[in-house]
């Protein structure tokens, strides 16, 4: 059986690179910027007042100094003249600083009667002027690749960039398999349960930047699986859930091989997630996840999210392994790399007692997966271990 790292490398090899498409800025949130963007203007494009007040000459600023107000500068309409000795221009936040002025006295420090302005409080040394280009200049760049967040979008808008090149969203088709499954909201028969994995995986993969299409549940027959796999055509990645193990009704491998799957690997030395399968199915990459709900989700974090990141051109593709102190001890690990559901709090990491791979409740109460190497010995409280934030 191959290791998790080997399996992830093979999965990443299957991940197709996405082309670039242009999207309007208003639709670019969370998309992956595919090429560096360059500002073609300075911001602010002129020296601007940062306060409401009066533009004067700095050398004339002192308590009780008096000025004649000769005009007004607003945000959007500059004062065209020049501020001379003894003169002031009424100015508002964001307005261009008039020629001849190099200091803004805030209005709270002044008293005005008609055109006569007096400084009534010590203004202090701050000029209240934002130099031209202090935020960014022509040629400033926003680097790529990057997932565009709210802050990036505000900056791009200020740069006057109306549309951006982004990586096309990977299209992922999700196929739940099993005679026992019905959709949430349906009435299950006495031996049936609700298909849950697709919902967790859809949220996880869309959060990573993919577009996910949930296909109808496939039943445990070759024919039904073939129909579902055919419906998945057009997807960049086809993900099946369940039917991956060795039981008589675990037919995903057989059905996909009938359709021409070139298998890359089957089974990984990990827990949960052992019966993972991956390969190339026509134009698409295919990943067959184990059906146990936690196994499917853990494989989502460990393999599918990295795959989406690779397709989007993000680096590193692999999950970010962190380190933290154990708040409670851990038993020795077995031969498989173990991803243990855990809670990371102020005291450190605590693994949940029951790690059975059917327990979604435990997964929902977790915010970390402790990563245990094969044959890791017992660990005491206070020891440092590796974990994935989830
Ligand atoms: N004799 C062996 N039995 C099993 C082995 C093994 O090595 N030898 N491996 C076990 C491990 S580990 C796992 S993981 C599971 C994987 O099984 P499958 O991928 O074949 O999954 P199913 O049998 O179809 O389902 C397992 C379990 O999960 C439930 N399930 C399936 N799909 C969904 C879904 N979309 N939403 C919610 N729950 C789902 C299903 O009802 C079963 O309870 O095999 C072990 N067996
Ligand atoms: O590999 Mo299974 O996923 O341990 O439950």
From TrEMBL:
Cross-referenced Gene3D superfamilies: MoaB/Mog-like domain (3.40.980.10), MoeA, C-terminal, domain IV (2.40.340.10), Molybdopterin biosynthesis moea protein, domain 2 (3.90.105.10), Molybdopterin biosynthesis moea protein, domain 3 (2.170.190.11)
EC number per UniProt: 2.10.1.1
SMART domains: MoCF_biosynth (SM00852)
A GO cellular-component term linked to this record: cytosol
InterPro entries listed in its UniProt record: MoaB/Mog-like_dom_sf, MoaB/Mog_dom, MoeA-like, MoeA_C_domain_IV, MoeA_C_domain_IV_sf, MoeA_linker/N, MoeA_linker/N_sf
Pathway(s) per entry: Cofactor biosynthesis; molybdopterin biosynthesis
Family listed: Belongs to the MoeA family.
Name of the protein: Molybdopterin molybdenumtransferase
């Amino acid at each position: 059986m191959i290791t998790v790292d080997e399996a992830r490398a093979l999965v990443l090899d299957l991940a197709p690179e996405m082309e670039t498409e242009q999207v309007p800025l208003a639709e670019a949130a969370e998309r992956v910027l595919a090429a560096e963007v360059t500002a073609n203007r300075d911001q602010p494009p002129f020296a601007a007042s940062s306060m409401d007040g009066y533009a004067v000459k700095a050398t004339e600023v002192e308590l009780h100094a008096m000025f004649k107000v000769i005009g007004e500068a607003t945000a959007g309409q500059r004062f065209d003249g020049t501020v001379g000795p003894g003169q002031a221009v009424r100015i508002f936040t964001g307005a261009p600083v008039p020629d001849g002025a190099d200091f803004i006295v805030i209005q709270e420090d002044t008293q005005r009667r008609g055109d006569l302005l007096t400084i009534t409080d010590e203004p202090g040394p701050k000029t209240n002027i934002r130099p031209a280009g202090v935020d960014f200049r022509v040629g400033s760049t926003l680097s790529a690749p990057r997932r565009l967040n709210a802050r990036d979008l505000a900056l791009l808008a200020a740069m006057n960039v109306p549309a951006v090149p982004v990586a096309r969203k990977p299209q992922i088709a999700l196929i739940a398999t099993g005679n026992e499954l019905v959709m949430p909201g349906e009435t299950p028969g006495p031996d049936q349960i609700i298909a849950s994995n697709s919902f967790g995986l859809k949220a996880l993969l869309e959060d990573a930047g993919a577009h996910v299409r949930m296909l109808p549940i496939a039943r445990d027959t070759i024919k039904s699986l073939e129909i579902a796999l055919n419906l998945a055509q057009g997807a960049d990645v086809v993900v099946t859930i369940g039917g991956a193990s060795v039981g008589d009704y675990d037919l995903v491998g057989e059905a996909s091989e009938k359709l021409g799957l070139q298998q890359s690997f089957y089974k990984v030395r990990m827990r949960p997630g052992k019966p993972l399968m991956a390969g190339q199915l026509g134009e698409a990459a295919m990943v067959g996840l184990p059906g146990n709900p936690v196994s499917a989700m853990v494989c989502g974090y460990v393999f599918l999210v990295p795959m989406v990141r690779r397709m989007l051109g993000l680096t590193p593709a692999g999950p970010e392994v962190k380190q933290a102190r154990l708040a409670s001890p851990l038993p020795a690990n077995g031969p498989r790399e173990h991803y243990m559901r855990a809670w990371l709090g102020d005291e450190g990491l605590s693994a949940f007692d029951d790690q059975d791979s059917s327990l979604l409740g435990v997964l929902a109460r977790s915010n970390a997966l402790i990563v245990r190497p094969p044959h890791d010995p017992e660990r005491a409280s206070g020891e440092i271990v590796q974990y994935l934030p989830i």
